[in-house]
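Possible regression after last week's pipeline update?

I re-ran a chain I had predicted before the update to compare outputs. Posting the input and the new output here so someone can diff against the archived version. Not blocking, just want to make sure nothing changed silently.
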Amino acid sequence: MGLEAACKVSFDGKVSEGKALLESAELLFRGDFRVKIPFQQISALETKNGRLTVTFPQGVAHFELGPAAEKWRDKIRHPKSLLDKLGVKTDSRVAVIDIDDGNFRAQLSERTSEGLENKLAKECDFIFFGVTGKSSLRRLDNLLKHLAKTGAIWVIYPKGQPHLNENDVRHAGKAAGLVDVKVVGFSSTHSGLKLVIPKTKR
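New output (post-update):
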């Protein structure tokens, strides 16, 4: 996840207080009404007096963000790549487990030559682990055996599912002896929670 802020938004003749969310590839608002604006659909973006004005095919939305408006504008104009947000570097040793995302795999192939498609090395810098239900989380104990002391397990899970949410992943990580340090929007359908070994146990 990127940024979030409580703010007032005006759109399509309506005004509402609510929460604005800046994800990896879209701008969201949840209040009395909802707005979802993919970055690729934005045709104009400007700020003035703390207001972020966004023009897209469905109309023009005004976000009253105060001093943060320019920061949001810049992040929309120059979004970080997914791998940058995940922390993957060119020399990272990476394992990908149960993630069927062609775009993600293609980005990994371009970024690092150390990718270990669906295989676990003894000491991985990153393990990307896709889960669809709570039962999958039991594998964290085994994955931990393949993690470098300063490495991370990114648990990738579907958004908006009642049977599996961020807290479920967090609790499973804690049970395995890991702590959560970051959440990102992995895609339009999935989120990622970063789990690491506590500093006191490295």
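Follow-up from reviewer: compared with the archived run. The domain at 3-77 is CATH 2.30.29.30 (PH-domain like). Marking as no regression found.
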